[in-house]
Amino acid sequence: MRIFTFMRPLYNEKNGLFRNFMTYSREWTEEVGSEDAHGRAIWCLGKAVAFLDDPGHLAMSATLFKKALRAVENFHSPRTTAFCLLGLHAYLYKFSGDSDVRRIRGVLADRLFNQFKNNGTDDWPWLENSLNYANGKLPQALLLSGRRMQRNDMIDMGLKSLKWLLATQTEDNHFVPIGSNGWYEKGGPRARFDQQPVEANAMVEACVEAFNVTRDKLWFDNAVMCFNWFLGHNDLNMPLYDPKTGGCRDGLMADGINQNQGAESSLAWLLSLMTLQKLYADEILNQPSSQKTDY
Fold this sequence. Notes:
Elements: H1 2-7, E1 11-12, E2 17-18, H2 35-51, H3 55-69, H4 78-94, H5 99-119, E3 130-131, H6 137-149, H7 152-168, E4 170-171, E5 174-175, E6 184-185, H8 197-214, H9 217-228, E7 251-253, E8 256-258, H10 263-283
Antiparallel strand pairs: 1-2, 3-6, 4-5, 7-8
Helix pairs in contact: 2-3, 2-4, 4-5, 4-6, 5-6, 6-7, 6-8, 7-8, 8-9, 8-10, 9-10
């Protein structure tokens, strides 16, 4: 199983954390990776548990997931919390009766909700004083938690923040991700470029989750608008998706497109495509997709 072959060496048994960077000579540059790296690993392993049917592969993924889960209550990054929640919900799709995982999910979901509640204002309904990368993952995780935990307060907060985030990143009927060259600090100027695929993907999945919760077709349309950013409905009218390779270019710059096609960008495109394919099959064709992504 390729995912386990890749993930297992990243995990440091000594400290219970995932490493992040390795040199070309296959030497680790660190013993402790970032919180984000650990959160994304939890997300990945949770999804693997939800998808896998082979008993051996499932057992290996679930074991590593549970080991890595021991550290997450000590993390502080809101994005890490969101990434972990996505993985926790996926794991519980397969093992809904795991009381320890359910407890941790509750702790993290409450933490994310309270960060929104305590830091957001009417004109800036956000849990931080800046918008930067993968912003859509935060309301997505809150909405998913509200739906799966039957918490209407989380759903209301998630919808409020997502509506604002979408309005902030929409102009002339197309999606305009927050630029990475300065981001967007509260009260300051907003960076227009470089626009990154990871944000488009985060917003596609967040809008689809909002649709799952509300059944409001507007969220369906918003998901399609964000997806179309990949196809050229963007500031430069240039597609980032490359039909020759099946990959995605790394970003939209003020003077053109970054021609590199990195793993994160291509995964952002593919995840967005899979999400929209399932939505289209389920809602338009009335032919429920076999993709297990409703968690």
